[in-house]
Structure formats: structure tokens, C-alpha cells
Amino acid sequence: MKKLVYVTLLLLQCWAAVAQSGSGVKGKVVEAKTNKALQNVIVSIQNTNFTQVTNREGEFVFNDLNPGAVLLKVSSTGFKDQLLNVEVAKGQISDLGLIILEEDVTLEQQINLITILENDLNDDNSGSENTAGLLQASRDTYQQAAAFNWGQARFRIRGLDNEYATTMINGVVMNKLLDNRPQWGNWGGLNDATRNQEFTMGSAPSDYTFGGILGTQEINTRASIYRKGTRLSYAGTNTNYNWRAMATHASGMNADGWAFVISASRRWAQEAYFEGTDYSANSLFASIEKRINDNHSLNLTSIYAQNRRGRNSSNTDEINSIAGVNYNSFWGWQDGEKRNSRDREVDEPILMLTHYWKLSDKTRLTSNVMYQFGKIGNSRLDFVNAANPDPTYYQNLPSYFTSLYENDPSVVPASAYQPGGLGGVFTPNLVGAMDAPFLTQRQIDWNAMYRANTTPILDANGNEIGRQAAESKYVLYEDRTDDNLFVANTILSSQLADNIVMNGGASYSRLKSANFQMLTDLLGGSHFVDVDPFQSGTAQQPDLNNPNRRVGEGDKYGYNYNLFADHIDAFTQFKFTYRKVDFYLGQSFSRKTYQREGLYRNGIYANSSFGKSEKVDFDNFGFKGGLTYKVTGKHFLTMNSLFMTKAPSMRNVFFNARLSNTPIRNLESERVSNLDLSYAIKTPTFKARITAYYANIQNATETSFFFAEGAFEDNDGDGGDAFVAEIVTGLDKLNFGAELGLEYQITSTLKATAAASYGQFTYNSNPNVVLNDDTRAARGLSTLVNLGESKLKNYRQPGIPNQAYAVGLEYRDPKFWWVGANVNYLADTYLDVSSVLRTNSFLRNPLDANGFQFPEATQERVDQLLKQEKFDPYTLVNLTGGKSWRISGKNPITLGLFATLNNIFDVRYKTGGFEQARNANFRELNQDVSSGTPAFAPRYFYGFGRTYFFNFYINF
């Protein structure tokens, strides 16, 4: 018996010794050029919860791993990921030696990418629809192609708008409450400072938020995680700006527990790619962290990114054929310089305090308070009792004279009203077309406006000896949005068990948004009278409390109101990891409350414009889940699914916010669902992912403004013409398709990539269309006219390439130079169609007392007129390259040069456009199109032709 006990104890001791020695791996991570140890590098065993961060010596160690083959991933911001096949020996800690990380050149491409994002800023003081910025942090081959190769063509991942993604800084959501989109300009020009990013695709789980169906982007500005050192760079390009200078310094954490990062940049251009587009941007960033002890740390982040640039116009084919696709109607000569009338300025500083609390080895709590304030302004010309100063105003173009018709029934033959007729007599004025003002005056005439705002000073003989300021007929003003936003949030991450991680968070946001029209330049005049020339009587007064007010530079006029929004949000998420299957479950709840406060008592809406409106509340929830099945250590199957409701944006709730407190009645939240299935391969030499996706958005709401001719019944001799707000409700969108990304390391220096996207993005319902006509309110009538159903189902969503393909080749030389090329084919982009043209009112004759349709209309002709335009496909070829040098010494210096040449064959292509809905009925549109030179043809946006970008940098 004693022998048995001794043997048992001996075996137990041997087992304990083996268990304590363990099986595992260790190594040291160094930078390729300098062999310098890299701290805070993330090293993980793929498909497990095992993760380590390298210490100051760049070392890591994993103990207690199961013997056998594992895939080791080594990653750090600014470097290419390393994926290593490692064999874990039983009872041994295998030493992998030095693991070398090379610089990731795609980070240099981010600097070029931001020019695309800033070109996508809208005139309505909202954010950007472009999705390319979300993908900056992604290492996925397909997503890299979508951002850097297809982003210049306004490609959108899965055809989705940016409002269905979530962009965060330190866990604080940066999507605007006005329209649910991020404002990229708020941190533009700070590429070095915003490089620490995490990205999740689709509805995949994020540690920071519930997210949406397009993905999440988390920008981390914690000072201690930045690589210590200084970086100086100077760049040149011919896109949105010409020159950029940037400097960044990171101190690293010192012995007293302090770390700081500062960054500054300036970007400028006297004239950028499109005519008359000036550019000036100044950006500052500072992040300071104090480590109080091992469990607590405070970080203060401040961001200031001021950006002012001239915008470029959308143009018809007629305008482009006369003036070229780079033509811009928004500028004119003044005192020998080009002056743009449509400048956009973004100036919204951010202050954020973050507390990092390590509750235990397995639980962490991160809390933030953020305050953002500042302004967004869009300038434009205003005029009263004067000619329209826009050189492309339809009466200035040749097409106006060549698309004229005589519509007097007394002279129009009866045959014109038979099916297939035109309802009028074609009477082109060819002489007038030859003398069209646009042919000789293609730009804004600033001097003429200054002269119109002054009166002559005459001598005794009646000779003009000067001019004096008079009441301005023309002025320059800004549509302003001055936001004050407060946000507080907290995010919890806890490892409940070896295979279970819980994430949760809660946030509160409070927004006060001041919106007003501000006069910025009297253009030589003495004052401007604040009245609406398109109305009469008291309806002319923007503010009945201050009628016939004379305004000067810096004064508010026209409209003036506040918008308030309160937003609470909470989520929880649980992630489970097992040997063959990982899965997660998440849920969220949010409430948004909107309110408008009118500061003017508008003459049109005297009883519904001044004071505070009712509050509008939306309660929303979401559920999502997904799993990953590990076929082997290198082959995976992944599924993600989501269902959520989403509140309409504030701008869509108050459809006529400039004048009225009235919201859209009985408005409901959107219903959003998503499903994607992926198969992925990850090996050191070959990576692949193919994904099939399905996204369904139901009950969306959209609003827009335009002048419509013949949209209403002609009750007072105006032809049924009016400036209207269009409200589209019950709009469904269906997006499905497939994505493919391939990457193959042919040799140690040569890599091939391929990416493909095929989708079908359609409207999936016939929504309801309501028009709001202010002139009806002025006559005491109901402002809302329900046009009923718009037959939009199966029309394509606009401005998105439904097909995109790319192949690329990259050579990286061991002597630190590299060159790459890619070829991209994009197709199936469609024009934005008008909802009102596809309602029954399109066929109704406004001159007919019984509301009958136009007698000349046929279904065949209606189908021709309403057929959606598909743009021509195009191929873009891009070249990239770079070289870096290391200067040895006590403090090594790295010099680098990065350059791209995009669209080397200078292909000109349409990225988007829209139907002009001014011809809002069949007869007017049919006559205009039948003329062969329509005065109200679609307007288009074009992408850049051949562009270059180079960046020279020094790291030390």
C-alpha cells in the first residue's frame, strides 16, 4: 500500500512539474529598419481568447497553450500584420526569436483618402455620405480596395449610406444628430493623430457600441498608446488642395506617469482641381494622459480642425459641352482674383476627457465627457428685385431658346392634343440661342452686382463722378448651423469566464443647434431689407415681431431657430469562444427627443413658427447575433444578423424647419435588418474572403426642396408652379450582393490582390409623397398636398456603382522601396430619380378643372420619359510607390517618400447626378425632352481625372 502511495505521489509531482513548465511560445517584436524593440504590439493566438501586449523590450510570452499547430497574429498601428504558423511543442516554451514588422504603406494612402471625404460634404450643413473613411483602419483586401481604389468613384460598401455606420472617438459616437452622419471635417488633416483605429464590418460585434449594419470605426486618442517620436511631413496634390504640411510629436509615457501627443497641419490651395475651388484648412490636436496609478488614468483630448473651401457646381451635359467638365458656375473675377460664392466652412472644436479604470485584471471601465461647439456655414448669393446672378440660370443657356413652345390653346392645333402629340407648337428661337448670355458670360459678375447696389454721384453737368452705397439688391449670406453638443458615456468590458466576454455601455447626448441666415457682405450696398419678394402682405415678413427690418453685415435675417435633441442609448453584448465555434449576442435600447424653437414669427406661418414646438419622441431597440465556425485553424465560416429600429433624423422630422414648428405627423422609425454569410481563408501566404449579404431598410423618410412647375392645380393663373418641400415616407430599400477579396504572397517581395463587388441596390416600395407649398399657407389654405403613391419600386438607388472589380500587383524590395499598380472597373451607376414625377399628379393636367390627365400622354412615352439613366462604365488605373531611408546614429532617423498617380489615363466619368423636377408634369417634361435640347436636363457630378499625390516625411 505504501508503495502505491509513493508511486501515486511521484506521478502527481511529475504531472505538476509538466503542468508548471507548460507549453507555449515567446518572442521579441522589432521594427524592420532599425531593429528597435516595439512596445504595445498586440500578439494573439487566432481563434482563441489568448492575447498579449509586448513590453518595453518588445517581448511577449504565452504559457499553458495546447500542443499543436496555431496561427500567431502580430499587429500594431503603422505596421503590416504578421501571420505566423507556429508549432507548440508539448512541455516547452518555444522561442520564435525576432519577429520583424514592416511599415504599412497604406497609412500613407489615408492622407490621400481624406481629400475624397472632404469633397463629399453637403450644402445642407450635414455630414458625409461617403463610406470610404470607415475603412481606413481595415486590413481586409476587399475593404482596402473599396476605400483606396474605388473611393474616388464614390463607391459605397454594400450600397449603404454612412448613417448606417457608427464612427467613434474614444468610444464617443461622432455621428451628427442632425442627419446621423459623421462630419469628417471635424478631424480632417490630423491623419497622424487619428491612425489608431479599430474597424468592424457590417453588424459584427464591437467592444464599444451596438453599431449598425455598415460597421463601426473607433479612433483611439489615448496618449500613451502612440509610438514615441516625432514626424514631419510635406505633401502635394492636385485634388481638393495643393499643399499640406504636418508635424506630430508623441512623448511616450515617462517615469512620472505623463504622456502627451501634439499634432498640427495646414492644407491650402489657391485653386484646386475644379475651377474656382479655393481651399484653406488649419488643424490642431493635443492629447495628454496622466497615469494616476496602476488602476486609474485620465486623458484629455482636444481637436480643432478649421476648414474653408470653395465648392463646385453640378452641371448639365449642355453646360459641360460648352465649358468643359471642370467648369464651376459658383465663381467670378473680382479685383483680378477668382472669388467663389459658395464657400463652405467647418469650425467645430472638440474637447474630451476620458477616465480609464482597471477594476480588476478582467474588468475595465472607460468613461468620457465631451463638449463640441462651433459653426458650419455655407455661403450663397441672395437677391431681391434683380436678375438671377447664376450664369447657368436656365434663361441664360442656349437650350432655353431652343426648347420654347407655344401653348396657347387658341393657336395650338387639335392634333397636338392627340395621343403622341406635344400639347403645343415647337417654336425654337435660334437667333436667341446664338446670343445666349452664357456664351459670353460664363461666370458670376461680381462687378455688376456691386454696381447694382450703388447709385451714381453726378457733377453739375450730370456726369458720373463716383458711386454711393444704396439699398442692396444683391448680398452674400451664410446658412449657419452653430451646434453645442454635450455627451457623457461609459463603456464596460469584463471577462466573465475564460470563454465569455461581456461588453456594455450607456450614453447621453444633449444638442442645441442654432440655425440662421447671416448676412456676410452687402456687396457695396448700405443695407438690405429683410422681406420675402415672392410673397405679399404680411406673408412677406420673415419676422412679424420686427417687420421691414434693415439688416447689415453680421446680422441674422430670413430665418432663425433652434433645434434641440436629447439622446440616450444603452447596449449589452456577450461574446462566447469555444474550440470550434464562437458566437455573440447583443441588444440595445435608445430614445431620441426632438424639439424646434422658432425665434422669428414668420408671416406665412404666423401661428406655428414662433416659440417652442411640441416634443417628438422615438423609442428604438435592436438585437443582433452571429457565429464563427472554425472548419480548421485557417478556414472559417461566419454569420452575422441584425434587426433594429432607427429614429428618423432631426432634419427629416421638421421638414420645413426654417419657417415652421410643425413636424411630420405620425412619423415612425425605420426598420433595419441585415444578414451576411462569409467564408474566409487565412494563411501566411494566402488570404481570401467571400461574403454574401442582404440588407433591408423599411419605412425610411426623405425630404428635399425644389421649384416645381405644374405640380398643382392652376387656381390663380400661376400654372400650378411653386417652390415646395417634398416629403417622402414609407420608402423601403433592398440591398443584396456579394463581396470577394483575395491576397496571395507570390514571393517574399511580390504580392497579388484581387477584389470584386456585385450588388443590386433598389427601392423596394412605392412610398407616399406629400408636397408642402408655403404660398398656400399665405392664402390661408392647407400647405400639405398629398400626391399619393410614387411608383419607385425596382428603381435603382442612385450614385452607387453596383459593380466594382480590381486587380493589383505590389513589389516590395528588401532595400525598402516598393511599387504597386491596380486596375479597376466600375459599372452600373444610376441617376437619382424624382419621386414627384412618378406620382399620378405627373399625368394630371393642372389647367383641367376636372383634373383629367393630358390627352396626348401615352404609356409608351411615359415609360420613355421616366426611364432611369444608367451611367457608362469606366476603368481606372492607379500607380503607387515609395521609398524609405534609414540614417543610423544614436537617434536613428527615417526618411520616406510616398507617391500615387490615380486615373493615369485621365478618364472622365459621372459619379452621380439627379433629375431636375422643375418640369413636374407630363406636358412640360415631354416638350422639354422632345426639343432635343432640354432646358431642365439632369445635372451631373464628375469624378477627378488624372491626379497625383506625393508625401515626403521624416520620423525621428
Rough shape? globular
Number of helices: 11
Helix/strand/pairing category:
mainly beta
- As a percent range, the share of strand residues is over 45%
Low-confidence stretches: 1-21, 112-122
Helix content: under 10%
Q: Largest sheet, described in full?
A: 27 strands, antiparallel
Mean pLDDT reading: 90
How many β-strand runs? 48
In short:
By secondary structure, the protein is mainly β. It contains 11 helices and 48 strands.
Characterize the structure shown.
The structure is a single chain. This protein has 956 residues and is mainly beta. It contains 11 helices and 48 strands. The longest helix has 20 residues.
List keywords for this structure.
10% helix; disordered N terminus; mainly beta; 48 strands; 11 helices; globular; four-stranded antiparallel β-sheet; 956 residues; 27-stranded antiparallel β-sheet
What order do the helices and strands come in, and which of them pair?
Blueprint: H1 2-21, E1 24-31, E2 42-45, E3 51-53, E4 59-62, E5 68-75, E6 82-88, E7 93-101, H2 106-118, H3 141-149, E8 165-169, E9 172-173, E10 197-201, E11 215-219, E12 229-237, E13 243-250, E14 258-269, E15 279-291, E16 296-310, H4 317-323, E17 331-334, E18 337-340, E19 343-347, E20 350-360, E21 363-373, E22 375-383, H5 398-402, E23 405-406, E24 425-426, H6 430-434, H7 446-452, E25 454-458, E26 464-469, E27 474-497, E28 500-521, E29 528-529, E30 550-551, E31 556-577, E32 581-598, E33 611-612, E34 616-630, E35 635-646, H8 650-653, E36 670-682, E37 686-708, E38 722-745, E39 750-763, E40 768-773, H9 774-778, E41 784-789, E42 803-813, E43 817-827, H10 859-865, E44 874-887, E45 893-902, E46 910-914, H11 922-930, E47 939-942, E48 947-955
Parallel strand pairs: 1-7, 8-11
Antiparallel strand pairs: 1-4, 2-3, 2-5, 5-6, 8-9, 10-11, 12-13, 12-48, 13-14, 14-15, 15-16, 16-19, 16-20, 17-18, 19-22, 20-21, 21-27, 22-27, 23-24, 25-26, 27-28, 28-31, 29-30, 31-32, 32-33, 32-34, 34-35, 35-36, 36-37, 37-38, 38-39, 38-40, 39-42, 40-41, 42-43, 43-44, 44-45, 45-48, 46-47
